[in-house]
Write a structure and sequence with these properties.
Number of helices: 10
Strand order of the largest sheet: 3-2-1-4-5-7-6
Strand content: 15-25%
Distance between the termini: 28 Å
CATH topology: Rossmann fold
Oligomer: single chain
CATH architecture: 3-Layer(aba) Sandwich
Shape: globular
Structural class: alpha/beta
Length: about 270
């Protein structure tokens, strides 16, 4: 996950519990929407633990998938979990991708764009490494809207503590909306740009199943939790528990939305 703060995404296992499991539901809808022919060469920018790369390998019949990330722990997780010989994972910066021009048929990125300082540089690099007629595609969480797992957390947190706004990606990531995403791709030379919502359910067996990933320290909301004293954290926990729609057997069902965008290189 490329970011100017590598410690934000330092633990692959913690990320998997926090967001990776939901990304696994979004990735197949995203790759189906891209609709690339078998035998394509893909590059996954900000590949993280390999969620999107593994989906490409399983569903798209690629000739090759190259993953790029600057997190050593994420790359370690990707190399352990993705053993397909068509895949390779390389450390690198999304804003200066260590690959030659025109090498790939598709450059993709899942849930990484908002953590990179220069978003235009990322899209320019994605376009640079894609051949003419190739595809650039990405998706991000709808942090300010229907990403209810995090929206519930930050709505409660900011009501209790205005400092929580400093961690809230719904405020910090205005790129994660259809208009800004479309503008980003178009101003960097991509044609036939499309943006769509991908909605998936997020089911939790219990409140603890929902709450425990926020204690992992990986991601904006867990970092905010880690910044709190025990009493404040327990108060936040109780208020969130009161807010969530908890079923008769303790189960919780929330909605998650990602915004996906794609464009073609001339």
């Amino acid at each position: 996950m490329p970011t100017n703060d590598p410690s934000l995404w330092s633990a692959g296992d913690a990320y998997e519990r926090y967001m990776g499991r939901w990304s696994r539901q979004v990735a197949p809808a995203f790759t189906k929407w891209l609709d690339l022919s078998p035998g394509a060469r893909w590059i996954d920018i900000g590949c993280g633990t390999g969620v999107l790369a593994s989906t490409i390998l399983a569903t798209c019949e690629p000739a090759e998938v190259v993953g790029i990330d600057n997190s050593v722990s994420f790359l370690r997780s990707a190399n352990v979990t993705v053993t397909d010989p068509r895949a390779s994972f390389i450390r690198g910066d999304a804003q200066a991708v260590p690959q030659p021009d025109d090498r790939f048929d598709a450059a993709v990125s899942g849930l990484a764009l908002n953590f990179v300082p220069d978003k235009d540089a990322v899209v320019r690099e994605m376009a640079r490494v894609v051949r003419p007629g190739g595809i650039v595609g990405l998706y991000v969480w709808d942090y300010a809207g229907h990403m209810q797992v995090m929206r519930t957390f930050f709505d409660v947190a900011t009501a209790l503590d205005p400092k929580a706004l400093e961690y809230d990606d719904g405020v910090k990531a205005p790129i994660c909306r259809p208009g800004p995403l479309s503008d980003l791709l178009e101003r960097n030379g991509l044609l036939d740009v499309e943006v769509r919502a991908i909605d998936v359910p997020a089911a939790f067996d219990s409140f603890e199943d929902y709450w425990s990933p926020f204690l992992g320290g990986t991601g904006s909301a867990p970092r905010y939790c880690a910044s709190l004293e025990n009493e404040a954290r327990e108060h936040l926990k109780g208020e969130i528990q009161r807010r969530l729609p908890i079923g008769p057997d303790g189960e919780i069902l929330l909605a998650i939305r990602a915004w996906a965008a794609k464009g073609m290189l001339q």
